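step: validate -> pass
step: tokenize input -> pass
step: predict -> running
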Amino acid sequence: IMSDPGRLSQRWYDDAIESGVSAEQLVEITSIIGFVTIADTLSRALSIPQRPFPEAQDGEPHRQVEAGTKIDRAWVPMVEIEQAEGLLEMMYTQIAETAGFVFNVGRCLTAVPEAVRDFFSAFLPNYTTHGPVSAGGLNRSQVELLSCSTSAWNDCFY
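step: predict -> pass
step: emit ->
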């Protein structure tokens, strides 16, 4: 998912599902990969030495699937903004208020609301779309240019 996102396709997704991985497991895996990628990228940008991963801990994935998910515009089941309730509705609102819109990656994680929360707890503080990131910093257009250039460089269809 991270090392070669240009190869992600409907066929790749279908093959993963046929191999026994559930859509919700893919959503959680993608959220974790995104979270770790954000942390690693920020560490590299700040020249913070990478550290080994901590030891694995016992526990179970969230596996809490949101009611009302459906496959419509994406490969994975998701909850549309208009159908969101409770925690998911609150997260959609927070993302929209913070960023000015809801990112498609956020929508594609909604089958597992905790995956949305986990991903955006790392994403939103590091990616603001309201004016400069800091005084004299980048504006939204410049941030988007860097994001798109980085996606193109990494052969990411997003």
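step: describe -> The two ends are 12 Å apart (CA to CA).
step: cleanup -> pass
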